[in-house]
Design goal:
The chain is mainly beta and about 325 residues long. The protein has two domains: about 150 residues, Immunoglobulin-like (Sandwich); about 90 residues, Immunoglobulin-like, CATH 2.60.40. It contains three helices and 23 strands. It has a nine-stranded mixed beta sheet with strand order 9-8-12-13-23-16-20-18-19, with helices on one face. Strands 3-22-21-17 form a four-stranded antiparallel beta sheet. A four-stranded mixed beta sheet has the order 10-11-5-14, with no helix packed on it. Strand 12 and strand 13 form a beta hairpin. It is globular.
Length: about 325
Amino acid sequence: MRLFMRRSRFDRTQAHSSLRIARRTDAAKSSRARIALPLSAAVALGCSDLAPPGDTYNSVTGVRTDEISTDAALPENWRCLAEDFPEELPATPTAASYTYTGFVFDYRQGIPFGGASLRACNINDSACAVGVAQGVPVPPQRENVPPGIAASVTAGFVGYLRLTAPDYVTYDYYVGGPMTQNVVATQPFAMVSLTSFGEFAVGLGAKPELVGTQGALAVQVLDCNSDPAPGVQLRLTDKDRPTLQNAQLWAAQGGIPVPDEVTDASGIAGFINLPNENIAFEAFVANRTFGKRSFRIVAGVLTTGTMRPSYVNGL
């Protein structure tokens, strides 16, 4: 079940341009570099109590000091976790509004399709009956990319994009942080047909009669190089909550969702059998957490987003 396509070299370069390298001024630490992140990723967008409106449903970036793993045990593509994350102010918007552009394809067939509708929704509007902006068709944004769909939102927008299409499961994509620039999505929106969604859930142990009454989450984990990350495990932060007793972890293995696995080269994992409420999880690599993210789960909706150790606007 390939919910996202692998990022191209162009996409990775685009993501890297959002990172800045700073040197420590402390003489004792002058030989090490660190990635400078906006405050919005390191602090302001963190979620703790999972109660709106305080919860912004974005990641908390950083490394806990109580992990058993040492810096030396980190794979090369995770070496940024050994560095400190300085607190910096988020970028200041230079326009009144920005546009988020993406395109839609069928995950099983792997080809784009038309007929999907998109609307941008405020972070605290789970129903998104109207939304704050409606999507409009747009021509291809670059070579080898099909026509897309775009929504224009006010500067600083924090929320999600809801896509709907006949015979497909409603698809919510959470934007990573406040919008401060135009974004052309590096991952296409991979919508899942109702039939395929049922097969996906039942194959992971969900009861067929309950599939439409519960929610599902799929995230793509990206490493320090903004590449899809293998070997990552997701863990619910409140797994003992009674409503999460039936939650099932899964990860894509060769495009197939498999229960209780770490990510493969696609970096895709998530949970099914989720309640109609807010949930949070942490991502672990080499027995070490590198961040937490929370999402509002809606019954019968596939909720999606990315998880990364570094902030990239709108992704």
